[in-house]
């Protein structure tokens, strides 16, 4: 029960990493507000789970930060942990990328998570040990063809998280990133449904497998718990060793 008496928000919680994290946090004693645009997915995954409340919300809405943070505090009386997991992918060569694709990727992956942090900080200051956990990607540090917007957005997440760690340390708040590698989630399912693609990415890891959402959730649990009390401004690679070869 490493999160007993804690209250957490997890965005992108209708599937994949977010769903696995919300469930694990609840098992470890936290009361969780699971947030996602996909209301059906939220209720299919969490509707019968004790300690998890669901909120269907587009995190890019102008009033989303105030509503999401307000709902958590109103329902549970406090806020201890914010996990910004919601994100989207994009794939287009830089010279061909439509400005709308660039902007949408940054809006969801970068700006929305920063705005949620801003709204959460006053409440995290009241927590005994506030936690901000932002899901970036190994592509925040590396790249591949067609990932101009995605890499820019995820590099931005790591940059602002380090700065928040510096600014908020005096309040006992930690701010860290998780950098997933090749993880089998809803976002990647279509690609990994092809055995050739799945095998190629699995072989990039010394562990010879794709990551699963629970692998990332366990990293998030560490960063959310007292075990990480002296860890802040850190990028936690959870990639099965994939980057050892790059």
Features:
alpha/beta; single chain; Rossmann fold; 7 strands; 7-stranded parallel sheet; 246 residues; globular
| Assembly classification | single chain
- Give a quick account of the main beta sheet: strands, pairing sense, barrel closure: 7 strands, parallel
What share of the residues lie within helices? 40-55%
The CATH fourth-level homologous superfamily: NAD(P)-binding Rossmann-like Domain
Shape: globular
Question: What is the N-to-C order of secondary-structure elements (H for helix, E for strand)?
Answer: EHEHEHEHEHEHHHE
- What's the number of domains? 1
Name of the level-1 CATH class: Alpha Beta
Number of strands: 7
Q: What would you call the structural class? A: alpha/beta
Flag low-confidence runs.
none
Helix count, per DSSP?
Answer: 8
**Rg from Cα:** 17 Å
Short structural description:
The chain is built from 8 helices and 7 strands, in the order βαβαβαβαβαβαααβ.
Please tell me about this protein's structure.
This protein has a single domain, classed as Rossmann fold, CATH 3.40.50.720. Helix content is about 45%, strand content about 15%. It contains 8 helices and 7 strands, in the order E-H-E-H-E-H-E-H-E-H-E-H-H-H-E. It is globular. The N and C termini lie far apart (about 40 Å). The mean pLDDT is about 95.
Detail the topology: elements first, then pairings.
Layout: E1 7-11, H1 16-27, E2 31-36, H2 39-46, E3 52-56, H3 64-76, E4 81-84, H4 99-124, E5 131-135, H5 148-168, E6 174-180, H6 189-192, H7 195-203, H8 213-224, E7 235-238
Parallel strand pairs: 1-2, 1-4, 2-3, 4-5, 5-6, 6-7
